[in-house]
Design goal:
With 461 residues, this protein is of the alpha/beta class. It contains 13 helices and ten strands. The protein folds into two domains: 239 residues, Rossmann fold, CATH 3.40.50; 114 residues, no CATH class. β9 and β10 form a beta hairpin. The chain is globular, with a radius of gyration of 23 Å. The protein starts with 14 loop residues before the first helix and ends with a helix. The structure holds guanosine-5'-diphosphate and magnesium ion. Magnesium ion (MG) binds next to α2.
Length: 461
């Protein structure tokens, strides 16, 4: 079996098919932009793409303030959605229907890669000025893919034993200690020098996948291998950390684990070379607020995962330096999502926090082609001012998840940089999940948002 057919979320449409679909559309001879949207699960990719596409479809007829940055406003004649040949379709209409339903609901979680093309027909630019002569058809291709696929970059420079040692160490700290009890006990009982036992490996492998998923539901983000989190990987491909397995003879459990790890690494390398390396404009969505609410350990883990992800972009900038043979990054938009969970006075702090998480060296090295923003793809709250003990205070009004009546909350002050260990207890957050706003269908203008248009601006600058 080819290792590429079991990629979770891509089972039907293999990585090779995606790679060749991306290769066949040369961005050089086509007017348009290819924009990839990534981020860890629940960071807000599906909601972002839905709202972004909806805004592109309707911005031309909407009041300017509904989507202020829209460079083609005067020239758009027609906007149309198309599938991108060879890529699974992003179901825009269904996702929009979720948001406009009565009552509205957020889209169900998705896995894998999907794509949609927004095709803009533009009136010719002024004839007299040749510099303004632009093509009449413009494609904006949006490609949504899991950020978990970017968590595996470190595997490319670690052999199985090194990776195992790192993962075992990680599993012995913080919340992971309790969560890892089961698989690590099973792994301890396995003899790496014994004859390969596919049943035992499948059993422990499943316990490891289970561990990763439980870590994620406990708010942890730095989880490897990233692809084990989506879909279901066939049992015969599963592996797990076992540093004791060093240099096992062929035919043993230890050798089988190392072999499976190598097959996985091949897939990862191929993803970076043939898919990631072809995505030159990317949006990275990060949900800092949920992690803040979950506390220091979740936040630190998200920071580790996010830095791992941006290292992949770093490699894209220095194509010769590391693992990628081709590729160059034109624009990278780094975005803190769900900014409607806090009051507007805290947006700068949220951006500061994201900047701190990415690190000053990264920000400085990428200053020219990257932008940093706080956004809400769909704004679920309204801001209200209330007098409290004689002072004007900002509250958010929205319907908390699972409820039907609106409440007013004070989300608390967002730190403008990562708090040090001692100052965490001084921060009290009340960051809630809200139900989507009741908009009602048809809603033929951009959905209420915060700074969504600025993402477009930073991508095509
Ligand atoms: N209030 C608010 N919640 C959001 C927004 N975007 C995403 N969410 C929440 O985050 C969840 C995950 O979003 P989704 O787009 O499915 O994330 P994905 O897994 O990255 O595709 C949603 O179900 C919403 O609860 C937003 O702009 N505002
Ligand atoms: Mg999604």
């Amino acid at each position: 079996m080819s290792p590429f057919t079991w990629l979770p979320g891509l089972a039907a449409d293999s990585l090779s098919a995606i790679a060749s679909a991306l290769a066949s559309v040369s961005p050089l001879n086509q007017a348009g932009y290819r924009i990839a949207v990534t981020g860890l699960q629940r960071s807000g990719k599906t909601v972002f793409v839905t709202s972004f596409v909806h805004a592109l479809l309707h911005a031309k007829d909407a009041p300017v303030e509904a989507f202020p940055f829209f460079p083609w406003r005067e020239r758009v004649r027609e906007v149309e959605l198309q599938d991108i040949p060879g890529l699974p379709a992003f179901p825009y209409r269904d996702r929009l229907a979720d948001l406009l339903a009565e009552p509205p609901h957020w889209p169900a979680p998705t896995e894998g890669l999907s794509a949609v093309r927004v095709r803009l027909r533009l009136a010719p630019a002024a004839r007299l000025d040749r510099r303004l002569l632009e093509p009449q058809t413009l494609h904006l291709d949006l490609i949504d893919y899991p950020g978990e696929w970017l968590l595996d970059l470190p595997l490319l420079s670690l052999d199985y034993e090194e990776w195992s040692a790192e993962m075992e160490e990680l599993a012995n700290a913080g919340k992971r200690t309790a969560l890892s009890v089961q698989w690590s006990a099973q792994a301890r009982a396995l003899d790496p020098a014994a004859k390969e036992d596919p049943f035992a490996l499948a059993h422990i492998g499943s316990a490891y996948v289970d561990y990763l998923k439980r870590c994620r539901s406990e708010g942890l983000s730095f989880l490897q291998p990233g692809r084990f989190l989506g879909g279901t990987a066939p049992l015969e491909t599963l592996f797990f950390p076992l540093s004791r397995a060093r240099s096992s003879r062929s035919g043993t459990n230890g050798a089988a684990l190392a072999r499976r790890y190598e097959a996985y690494r091949k897939l990862v390398r191929r993803f970076y070379e043939q898919v990631f390396g072809r995505l030159r404009r990317q949006v990275l969505l990060v949900d800092l607020l949920t992690a803040l609410q979950q506390g220091q350990e979740s936040f630190a883990d998200l920071a580790l995962a996010t830095r791992t992800v941006v290292e992949a972009f770093e490699d894209l900038r220095h194509p010769l330096a590391k693992v990628l043979p081709i590729g160059r990054l034109d624009r990278l938009s780094l975005v803190a999502t769900k900014a409607d969970h806090i009051t507007s006075g805290q947006l700068n702090n949220l951006v500061g926090l994201l900047r701190d998480m990415l690190g000053e060296p990264f920000m400085r090295a990428n200053a020219r082609q990257s932008g940093l923003l706080a956004i809400a793809s769909v704004r679920a709250t309204a801001q209200v001012t209330r007098l409290w003990q004689g002072e004007a205070m900002q509250f958010l009004r929205g319907v908390p998840r699972g409820r039907s009546d609106a409440v007013e909350v004070r989300p608390g002050e967002i730190p403008g940089q990562i708090p040090d260990r001692g100052s965490w207890p001084g921060f009290v957050f009340n960051i809630r999940d809200f139900e989507p706003p009741r908009l009602g269908a048809p809603f033929e203008k951009p959905l209420p948002h915060i700074n969504l248009d600025k993402v477009l601006q930073s991508l095509i600058a």
